[in-house]
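queue> pop job 88
queue> type: inverse folding (structure -> sequence)
queue> payload:
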């Protein structure tokens, strides 16, 4: 379960950037190709942070679908399967434009 180690990293980032404030919410953006189960990540967040400065904070996950742009025909395709082929012309000459994201996008902090 790599979600637990991901939560440890996210917690480290939140702790490093909270400037002594309590963290209410952490938002992350995760691409579909990262093989992360959002529900498991949220569950691990709660378990990992019990009894810490992050206890009671919530983890909000924004799912980013995998998408490609076709070099051959110019079409933009959202992928439902991890097959890198154009949905319009079936070309494999494509550029991956989203789906590999893993970003902490924001923290909601309490007032001092």
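queue> result:
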């Amino acid at each position: 379960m790599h979600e637990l180690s991901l939560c440890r990293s996210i917690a480290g980032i939140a702790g490093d950037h909270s400037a002594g404030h309590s963290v209410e919410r952490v938002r992350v953006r995760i691409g579909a190709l990262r093989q992360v189960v959002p529900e498991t990540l949220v569950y691990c967040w709660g378990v990992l942070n019990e009894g810490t400065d992050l206890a009671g904070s919530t983890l909000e996950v924004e799912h980013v679908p995998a998408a490609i742009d076709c070099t051959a025909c110019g079409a933009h395709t959202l992928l439902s399967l991890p097959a890198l082929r154009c949905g319009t012309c079936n070309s494999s000459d494509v550029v991956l434009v989203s789906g590999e994201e893993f970003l902490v996008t924001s923290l909601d902090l309490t007032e001092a």
